[in-house]
Write a structure and sequence with these properties.
Elements (H helix, E strand, L loop, with lengths): L1 H25 L13 H8 L5 E5 L8 H13 L5 E5 L5 H6 L4 H7 L4 E5 L2 H5 L4 H7 L8 H17 L1 E4 L3 E3 L8 E6 L2 E9 L4 H12 L11 H11 L11 E3 L2 E4 L30 E3 L18 H9 L1 H16 L8
Parallel strand pairs: 1-2, 1-4, 2-3, 6-9
Antiparallel strand pairs: 4-7, 5-10, 6-7, 8-9
Helix pairs in contact: 3-5, 3-12, 8-9, 9-10, 11-12
């Protein structure tokens, strides 16, 4: 009897250890450890097909807020066969990760099969690009918009080196982008840099990196971002106004209509957090930019509010909505001492 009991316990332990091992392999940050692909070789393998969806975090933050989580989850949902890679500067700090024991968004995203978290090493990234000399001389502590400028530089280098699609962390994907080499128009004859995609080593992006350094002026917000993309596009193309919903073609670059990503322009960003009588279908859009830079009020979707943002979360990033909106609000609203019933 005792021998049978020992055998049963042993089998349970073996099964538990095997399950734990599989979970550890499956979750890129199980027990808040550094994810795989922190080595250059692993990252090169992951990015080698040139089809990645790329997000970047240039602050030390490692726990994505709800909108960032929604952006990453929606991209993973829309592009299930493509790696969704989140470059995070804060991941290079293992001490910070080890102390970050409660990270619902990080855990949620890590459990998605095609989402990968990768440390952002700018010095290594900028090697063999025009940005390297600039980066090694710049005094980042004296830069007013350093988080934005360093992100502008990083996205250019990543997509030039590896190809793929870059997206800001406040862009919710709603359907696949069919283009390979494209820029997103924010308005007539004006490009954004919040979404763009290119094949590896595209000369347009090399020119952007050269122009980034030659006309560097960190005192002007956007000078190294959307203004840079617009300057370079005007050098490459003779820009015309959009006709109805048609995109524009310039050499081998598609300049996509503002409706593709910016159906709600930035002066009207609050409309995402309002209730609509009839919600728009966004049939002409591939993704939606929620203009978080404008959101100084810190607005977020509220469960049951029926705002456009809440409905977008519910449809396009349901895990984020369930864990970070519904569950978080339920925890916050629970009275102390009532318990979880």
């Amino acid at each position: 009897m005792l021998k049978e009991l020992h055998l049963s316990v042993s089998l349970v332990l073996v099964f538990a250890c095997g399950l734990l091992y599989k979970l550890t392999l499956r979750s890129h940050c199980f027990f808040a450890c550094l994810p795989p692909f922190s080595s250059l070789g692993g990252l090169e393998d992951l990015l080698s097909n040139g089809r990645s969806i790329v997000f970047i975090e240039t602050s030390e933050r490692v726990e994505p807020p709800p909108l960032v989580s929604c952006a990453v989850e929606s991209a993973a949902k829309i592009y299930p066969a493509r790696p969704v890679i989140f470059f995070m500067k804060g991941l290079s700090n293992t001490t910070q990760l080890a102390s970050n024991t409660s990270s619902p968004a990080f855990s949620l995203l890590s459990a998605i099969e095609n989402v990968f978290f990768v440390p952002l090493n700018m010095k290594k990234l900028f090697e063999d690009t025009p940005l390297f000399s600039w980066y090694t001389k710049i005094n980042s502590s004296a830069e007013k918009y350093w988080l934005h400028v360093s992100s502008d530089a990083s996205r250019l280098a990543i997509i030039w080196k590896y190809g793929g699609i870059y997206m800001d962390t406040d862009v919710i994907s709603i359907r696949p982008i069919p283009e390979k080499n494209f820029l997103a128009a924010q308005g007539s004859r004006y490009s954004s840099n919040g979404v763009f995609g290119f094949l590896p080593h595209h000369p347009f992006l090399w020119g952007c990196m050269e122009n980034f350094v030659e006309r560097y002026n960190s005192h002007i917000w956007g000078n190294q971002g959307p203004n840079l993309m617009t300057r370079m596009l005007r050098l490459w193309c003779r820009l015309e106004d959009f006709q109805e919903l048609d995109d524009l073609k310039c050499l081998n670059i598609s300049f996509l209509h503002p409706q593709r990503f910016y159906p709600i322009p930035y002066p009207e960003w609050r409309r995402y957090y309002q209730v609509w009588g009839t919600e728009p279908s966004f049939n002409a859009s591939y993704a939606l930019h929620l203009w978080n830079f404008m959101n100084k009020e810190g607005r977020t979707p509220v469960s049951g509010s029926n705002t456009l943002a809440e409905n977008l979360y519910r449809k396009h990033c349901p895990k984020t909505y369930r864990v970070l909106i519904q569950r978080a609000e339920g925890t916050a609203s629970r009275e102390p001492g009532t318990g979880n019933r």
